[in-house]
Amino acid sequence: MFLKKLLWSGLGVAAVGVAAMAMWLSSLPEASTEVHLPYIPAPETRAAVEALKPSKRRRPVVAVVGINDATELTDYLVPVGILRRADVADVAVLSTEQGPVKLFPALTVIPDATIDQFDARYPAGADYVIVPAMSRDDDPRVLQWLRRQARQGASVIGICAGAKVVASAGLLDGKRATTHWYYVDALRDAHPAVNYVADRRLVMDRGVATTTGITASMPMMLTLIEAIAGKDKARDVAQDMGVMRWDARHDSGAFQFTRAFALTAIRNRMAFWRRESLGIALHTGMDEVSLALVADAWSRTYLSSAATFAPSAQPVATRHGLPIVPDHVSAQWPADRRIPLMGERRPAQALDQALAGISRRYGANTADFVAMQLEYPDQRLTRGRE
């Protein structure tokens, strides 16, 4: 009798849970299939570039900082790859502590130096500090270091949810800012003095810049290159990367927690028996921007994760000298679970290729789910196929 009551009680709870979930899902908005890019006056664009002009050194020093245990992959690697490709600044890849930086959701990298070592080399501070999203917004060493860099005149650039770290350092109080669509409410609740700006992919205000989601690191870095070396240089780098535009236009309404997004997350998470580890072969000289975008995309399906492999445990240097630590020591990986090499494709095309591969393997809804997480404004992806 007890088991029978327990069973019916469990079924009753499950039924209530299913009903509650159904009500919650029905309350979510439908995905938008249209893109409405705002008009941005030319003076606003010029002011944004002007605000990023270097003021300390003829050849600026850029510091990209991360915590060792969990820093967002694309936010951390893409700025380094783009700026070193442009060769308009000296770029230092930093960590708070000695040792490798474990990136999320994939890859492990060996930084150039710790923040203490950087300070010893550059006592006057950096010209620009790039702040990725991190697993903790309140790491005391990061916050103290950011405040000191800002006092020394560095422009601070928060990429994606890195805006929350910048805000926790008190550098966004009373300023205009943006962040990844998923964290807008959290940013505003935790830091009510921040003035959130919608429909802008990049926002600059008095020495601090912020961006929307993960892929906004590309236009942000191109805008920085334009500020340092001029529009022609930025255009050349953009063409080399396959980026069509790098202005601040953005349709914030196209990125939100929709019914299709929630359903895909639930379905893929529940299908845990289908989860697979897909391999990326590391080789010397591979493009770090392409590697970051592809590994990031394939690790956000909720059905797969990207793992790197190489014949040796030794770190493998990318095109611009970033040592990547292989996850597995192996010369082989099952062919049916291997992520195709990016080859000579431009980085933006590598991301398109990854999303197309995700669509073929797991369905179009999962590709859209990943693009939404990356806040990738690709108009060829239509959401809401449920």
UniProtKB/TrEMBL annotation:
Pfam families from the xrefs? Answer: DJ-1_PfpI
Q: Which GO terms describe its biological process?
A: regulation of DNA-templated transcription
Enumerate the spans annotated as DJ-1/PfpI domain.
64-226
Name the InterPro entries for this protein.
Answer: Class_I_gatase-like, DJ-1/PfpI, INH-QAR
Q: Which PANTHER family match?
A: ARAC-FAMILY TRANSCRIPTIONAL REGULATOR (PTHR43130), DJ-1_PFPI DOMAIN-CONTAINING PROTEIN (PTHR43130:SF2)
Name of the protein this chain belongs to: DJ-1/PfpI family protein
Species of provenance: Allopusillimonas soli
Starting at the broadest rank, the lineage of the source organism is: Bacteria, Pseudomonadati, Pseudomonadota, Betaproteobacteria, Burkholderiales
